[in-house]
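Box 3.1 A note on notation
Throughout this textbook, protein chains are presented in two layers. The first layer is the amino acid sequence; the second is a token string describing backbone geometry. Keep the layers aligned when reading.
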Amino acid sequence: MTSANRLRRNPAVWLFPFAVLVGVQFGAGLYEKIIVVAQWSSLPGDQVVAAIENSGMKAAGRVFWPFVSPLVALFAVGNLVVAWRSKAANRRWWLAGAALMVGYAVFSYGFFVPQMLLLQADGATWPADRVESLVDWWTGLNYVRMAIGAAGWLCLIRALSLLERR
């Protein structure tokens, strides 16, 4: 068996870095949800855009998230394919974790990222009630997104715990 085939057949090669990246993304997202979003989510609409910038969220959206999130999304798709083809004992947990993280990425790139970029770019010119409405939707749906991320990460941790020792 060639080393390329061994790499392809070894679930840990795919699963471990994916679980670590999801853990980093989930941990950063949880910190952002608890600490950063709390600094602007309950403010009047006319103060939100400035508070987002002052909170560091806008900077994180430029220097952290564009590197972590796409990498997690790519690993999610790759792991979904590899897990689908796998016959490993941890296959169900691995598939569940990968599928949840693909869903997380679709949810993020389909709603959260575009809405936050739109708010940061044009929100200062919007009526306060429009800003407040978007913030309410964004923060409310973020609970769902965080639950998906937590479930995905826990499935991956369970899949790691079931890896066969060689």
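The chain has a mean pLDDT of 93. Helices lie at 3-9, 11-36, 45-55, 57-63, 65-85, 91-122, 128-161.
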